[in-house]
Amino acid sequence: MNVLVTGGAGYIGSHAVRELRDGRVIVSDLLAKGVSLVDFRTGSATAIGREGQGPGEFAFPTGLVPLPGDTTLLVDPGQRRFLKIAPDGKPVGTVPFPEGLNGIVTVRGAELFLFGANIAPLPTVSTHFIPDPMRTRKLLMRAEEIRRLIGKVEQRGYTLVPLNLHYSKGRIKLEVGLGRGKLQHDKRADKREKEWNREKQRLLRSR
User: Fold this and answer.
1) How many Cβ atoms are within 10 Å of 5's Cβ, its own excluded?
2) Is the whole model's pTM more than 0.85, yes or no?
3) Pair (106, 203) in one structural domain
4) Residue 197, helix vs strand vs coil
5) Which of 26, 20, 23, 27 is nearest to 40 (CA)?
6) H helix intervals, the chain
7) Are 108 and 90 in contact (CB under 8 A)?
């Protein structure tokens, strides 16, 4: 169990810590169901969001996914979504979990990690220790494949989405897909097509 104490405030169950470029850290406290922005220079800790189901709120704060520019995603499997946290510590929106396997695959350095996936351990693993089903898992892959995926993510704006988890030849295999949101001109084309389809239906009914 991680323990972090600063300015008289104690975090007895910190689940994840993300350090920002200016030395501040974001801490998700799983036991207390809280998230804080800690500044060691001033000895202060500021709460980020709160427990709940509305905007800027969370139900089960677990992993912290680092994004470019000191933006952070808080993994919230309780509401099946990510809470987006700006560099100043303010929640700025939510992102729903992708369909399929819960969680997200992200890049750290030259490695890939699975965040926020709820994978229950087998009951026969241990009788005295229960592994955390939400823990971050490092993905093993050939270096060439990792470089290719990182290029897709960092240069072309793709997102790595976990699709399927299965057992094969003594190993746990994770199928990962590349996804990307629609561009603005794609959305406009879809809107025109929908409007034209509605107009065709209206003309057919008026005959």
Assistant:
1) 9
2) no
3) yes
4) helix
5) 23
6) 143-156, 184-206
7) no
Cβ atoms within 10 A of the Cβ of 94, count? 18
Q: At residue 2, does pLDDT exceed 60?
A: no
Task: Write out the residue range of the structural domain in which residue 25 sits.
Answer: 1-97
Handedness of CA 142, 144, 148, 150 (dihedral sign): positive
Q: pLDDT of 73-117, one tens digit each? A: 888 877 878 888 999 999 988 877 765 556 778 777 788 888 777
Contact 117, 134 (CB under 8 A): yes
Q: Give the C-alpha separation, 97 to 31, whole Å.
A: 22
Task: Output phi, psi for 29, to 5 deg.
Answer: -105, 105
If one counts the domains in the chain, the total is 2
Distance between CA 140 and CA 178 in Å, rounded?
17
**Is 45 in the same domain as 132?**
no
Q: Do 102 and 130 share a domain, yes or no?
A: yes
